[in-house]
Design goal:
The structure is a single chain. The protein has 295 residues and is of the alpha+beta class. The chain has helices spanning 2-20, 103-109, 113-132, 137-143, 145-164, 183-252, 254-269, 286-289, and strands at 23-26, 30-36, 39-44, 54-57, 63-69, 73-83, 89-100, 166-177. The strands form three sheets. Strands 3-2-5 form a three-stranded antiparallel β-sheet, with no helix packed on it. The termini are far apart.
Length: 295
């Protein structure tokens, strides 16, 4: 019995050994390369690929498996001295999220995740210097920080995508500060620049206000002149119509017309409180002497 047990155990161990070298287990979070004598035969569970996680077969002893993480990974880019376009030196560090999207290219370029991370770090440092060196220090510190992070990520992806098989998901500038020895000088210069911009803005506003006021006054002058012209036309038409009505009325009754003109003359010549010394038989007062106005 013992003689039979030993061969069975040996056979079982051999089967387990062969199976261990035949089966490939690829979890959801991993992607695997199947290599035969160092040559890549196929990729399992690659992002956007045709295979998913699960259990796969490989040729025992001649093929081996190398796995890479499919999840986002990260590393911190330690403090770097970057010279901005205005020749100011800034202390910058960043936090980078990345993942392997092409394990075949990644293995050929770096072979291990640590080596790939080091290459990606070098690419990120170069991209950060290019992008931050193209703008002034105030844009890096506050004005365009979010935009610059996007530009750095795009710059790295142009290099790392085809050459390293990775994608930078996000770049975050954690710190972008001036060295302590230059802070006061730079802040004073920035304050002076802001004051100059404010002065220019105020001058432009005053110029625009003066232009608006001048245009408004010119339009008001034109409106008043047009209104006066229209008023004169309307007044002339009214006077002409009144004269026509009076003429028609006077033509119908000459005595009434004479009486009306005398009454208007009295009204115009003798306002309230007026004193006049004239003979009572003067022709001017003939209607006071006779209602017909005849002598």
């Amino acid at each position: 019995m013992q003689r039979m047990l030993l061969p069975l155990l040996f056979i079982a161990a051999a089967v387990v050994f062969v199976l261990a070298n035949t089966l490939v287990v690829v979890p959801q979070t991993q992607q695997a390369l199947i290599l035969r004598f160092g040559e890549i035969q196929r990729v399992v569970n690659q992002e956007g690929g045709t295979t998913g996680p699960g259990l796969y077969l490989k040729a025992p002893f001649v093929e081996n498996q190398i796995s890479f993480d499919r999840r986002n990974m990260h590393f911190t880019l330690q403090e770097q001295r970057v010279i901005a376009s205005d020749q100011e030196t800034l202390i910058v560090d960043a936090f980078i999220f990345w993942r392997i999207v092409d394990p075949r290219a990644f293995y050929q370029a770096a072979q291990t995740e640590e080596a790939g991370r080091q290459r990606l770090q070098a690419l990120t440092e170069a991209a950060m210097r290019r992008q931050l060196g193209a703008v002034d220090s105030s844009a890096i510190i506050s004005q365009r920080r979010a935009e610059l992070m996007t530009l750095i990520a795009s710059d790295v992806n142009r290099e790392a995508g085809p050459n390293l098989g990775v994608r930078v998901v996000d770049v975050r500038l954690r710190q972008a500060d001036l060295p302590a020895e230059t802070q006061d000088r730079v802040f004073q210069r920035m304050a002076t620049e802001r004051e100059q911009v404010a002065a220019a803005t105020r001058a432009a506003g005053q110029e625009q206000a003066a232009r608006i006021i001048a245009n408004a006054e010119r339009e008001a002058t034109v409106i008043r002149a047009t209104a006066r012209e229209e008023a004169e036309v309307i007044r002339g038409e009214g006077d002409a119509q009144r004269a026509r009505i009076f003429a028609e009325s006077f033509g119908r009754d000459p005595d009434f017309a004479a009486f009306y003109r005398s009454m208007r003359a009295y009204e115009a010549a003798m306002p309230e409180g007026t004193q006049m010394v004239i003979p009572p038989d003067n022709d001017f007062f003939r209607y006071f002497q006779n209602s017909s106005g005849r002598n």
